[in-house]
Design a protein that fits this description.
The protein is of the alpha/beta class. The chain has helices at residues 44-52, 74-80, 97-104, 110-123, 125-129, 140-152, 170-186, 198-202, 222-226, 231-236, and strands spanning 6-15, 18-28, 33-37, 57-64, 67-68, 82-85, 158-162, 190-194, 207-212, 215-221.
Length: 246
């Protein structure tokens, strides 16, 4: 893959010095959607925690926008432009939509925060109509929209989305991926997408990586991945380890 905004190189990480992911290489390009899939227990959550700085690297390197951030803290990575939307606890349920956005813009000055909120309402008109509603009163799709908008308040260059369609109805899940995520890539954000809905997510991916047992079992362009006749064989097939694309 070409150099991108975020380059994870031979990353090995785990808990208490015990590796869970081993030698993982993934690149996220500007305007690209890099999809990471794999069976339960594949190491996807550990990988995400490593990229955002919650877990330290045992070995390897993380380069963001040309700078080695391997030793940066989670706060430094967030401030530097790596945004993150977790699978759960992605908004503050007792705060209103506007208050959630204000929390997302806490690093901004008062005037900058107001401007950013106006931009979010312009990008997500549904949120403006709900601006005074508490997040706990939102539907699943509205809540995920708010979570993404809150992350965008910090103006990240790369946005990590950890299973954004989890718990959503199929139609809403399709809307989140085909509309929200695709639009974010279109305006220049690099997207690292962790997803369980493989068929749905692969339709928008520019690159796909399959993690199995903490290792990259398959890596290919989105087109190559979509051409794979049996994706389940990559997850569970006995010879899948030998399979890889570009």
């Amino acid at each position: 893959m070409p150099e991108g905004l975020l380059c994870v190189k031979s990353a090995t990480a785990g808990y208490g010095g015990v590796p869970i992911v081993h030698g993982v290489d993934i690149t996220v390009a500007a305007s690209g959607i890099s999809l990471v899939v794999g069976p339960n227990g594949a190491g996807k959550s550990t990988f995400v925690k490593t990229v955002i700085g919650e877990l330290p690297l045992i070995s390897g390197q993380i380069v963001f926008d040309g700078t080695d951030v391997s030793k940066w803290s989670e706060e430094q990575r967030a401030a530097g432009g790596i945004g993150y939307v977790p699978q759960s606890r992605d908004v503050f349920p007792t705060l209103t939509v506007t208050e959630n956005l204000e929390v997302g813009g806490y690093r901004l000055s008062g005037s900058e925060c107001k401007k950013a909120i106006a931009e979010m309402f312009g990008r997500f008109p549904a949120l403006e109509r709900l601006r005074h509603r508490k997040a706990r009163q939102l539907s699943g799709g509205e809540r995920k929209m708010l979570a993404i908008a809150r992350a965008l308040m910090a103006q990240p260059k790369v946005l990590i989305l950890d299973e954004p369609t989890a718990g959503l109805a199929p139609k809403i899940a399709h809307s989140v991926l085909e509309e929200l995520v695709v639009e974010l890539a279109r305006i220049g954000r690099g997207i690292l997408l962790i997803e369980q809905r493989v068929a749905l997510a692969s339709a928008i991916a520019t690159h796909a990586t399959v993690l199995v047992d903490g290792q990259v079992r398959y890596s290919a362009t989105g087109d190559e991945f979509r051409a794979v006749p049996d994706v389940s064989a990559l997850f569970f097939g006995p010879h899948a380890a030998a399979t890889s694309g570009s």
